[in-house]
Design goal:
about 400 residues, alpha+beta, Alpha-Beta Plaits, 5-stranded antiparallel sheet, 12 helices, 22 strands
Length: about 400
């Protein structure tokens, strides 16, 4: 699809529509089309429409790759502070919004919904609709931009997006601390997040032995060393038993966080599931995951988000089994919900060998969320049910 008019015609003539962008999140984009469903590829709908560096805003088409937009912003010393993930895998602006994805920078500046200020989209009737605007302080119309963050293509087809942006810090530093156990790390996490130090990102993960906490700060190079030393002091003074403390800067430091944004820490052969939670629930999650030797994970945003690498398909007795079913039950028991981004989306009542896509459930795992308000919005925007059901 190269134009909005083509998208409108396709929606008007189709009984059911599935949307695909850059393909960086296969569990969302490479879905089984049922019956007369038409798959719309929006990867050609790309390009910058308007960029005002002095106003700290830009408008681009939905299929614009995040990596290309990031490179353009970097030329002016600007960036998207929420660190959109999977850019190296071909993520687009529209797909990032639809999946509601933010990276480690969300800890300091907020998530993607805090930076999306305007959208254009095609609804289920094939009409083009506009929400928000191209200025930061805008109260025009219904707040469609917020509704479309994480909508997964269930409200309409995004065509244009307007973001506010920030100047990029001139330098960064990351303090990494290694601990023997989770309780020690959580003690340090509490001390760090309660400190007066302005933190850009706080991530942690289990290693082969123990746990590692990464805390990122950014700002002027002239004061960064002093702030990094203050951060080291806070971590060292925590109640946790620490094994080592390191400081990363320059290219080594940037490479560390680029690995996080691109999800290169994932073990080969695993899918990727995004699970919102709170730090208080982490011990229960770790206890539930203790029996899985193949689950890799990284906690982000100060422990408020879990990126879980879960075995996508396991082979037992020569028969393929969908392991996302096991994760689905585990999350239900924990009262959590996850969204599968990479790997095979879960299907219930389906025979994979026969290619049966009946009772397709999509990529949502765990506790079902009931939201009557959003269902009413979806019914108004898509009365014939052409998009993914809510």
């Amino acid at each position: 699809m190269n134009s909005i008019s083509e998208i409108q015609e396709a929606v008007q003539g189709a009984k059911s529509v599935r949307i695909r962008g850059g393909g960086s999140k296969p569990a969302l984009s490479q879905r089984d089309c049922q019956g007369d469903a038409q798959s719309l590829d929006l990867s050609s709908l790309k390009g910058v429409i308007d960029y005002q560096p002095e106003e700290y805003t830009f408008t681009a088409r939905a299929g614009t790759p995040v990596a290309e937009m990031a490179a353009l912003l970097a030329e002016k010393g600007q960036y998207l502070p929420f660190d959109p993930p999977l850019a190296d895998r071909g993520a687009t602006l529209g797909g990032t919004v639809a999946a509601g994805l933010s990276g480690p920078g969300r800890y300091r500046y907020g998530g993607i919904r805090d930076f999306l200020i305007g959208i254009r989209f095609v609804d289920g009737k094939g009409q083009e609709v506009r929400g928000g605007g191209a200025v930061v302080k805008n109260a025009a119309g219904f707040d469609f931009p917020k509704l479309f963050v994480g909508s997964l293509g269930r409200l309409g087809i995004l065509t244009e997006l307007t973001f506010k942006i920030f100047p990029q810090p001139s330098a960064y530093a990351t303090v990494a601390a290694e601990f023997d156990g989770l309780s020690d790390l959580l003690g340090a996490l509490d001390a760090v997040t309660r400190s007066a130090i302005d933190l850009h990102a706080v991530d942690f993960a289990p290693e082969e032995e123990g746990w590692t906490l990464w805390v990122r700060i950014g700002g002027l190079l002239t004061v960064l060393q002093e702030r990094a030393q203050a951060l080291r002091t806070v971590v060292s003074a925590s109640t946790g038993q620490m094994r080592s403390l390191s400081l990363y800067q320059d290219q080594e430091e940037e490479g560390l966080w680029q690995t996080v944004r691109s999800m290169r820490w994932l073990t080969e052969g695993t899918g990727l599931v995004r699970i919102p939670l709170t730090p208080q629930r982490i011990p229960a999650v770790e206890e539930a995951l203790s029996g899985s030797e193949t689950a890799t994970r990284r906690y982000s945003v100060g422990g408020n988000l879990l990126w879980l690498g879960w075995p996508d398909v396991t082979a037992q007795a020569g028969v393929e089994q969908d392991s996302s079913r096991d994760l689905h039950g585990l999350l239900q028991e924990l009262g959590l919900q996850g969204i599968q981004l990479i790997g095979r989306a879960r299907r219930e009542g389906a025979n994979r060998d026969e290619g049966d896509a009946r009772d397709y459930k999509g990529p949502l795992l765990g506790r079902p969320l009931q939201n009557a308000f959003l269902r009413r919005i979806a019914a108004a925007l898509d009365p014939e049910g052409k998009f993914e059901p809510w």
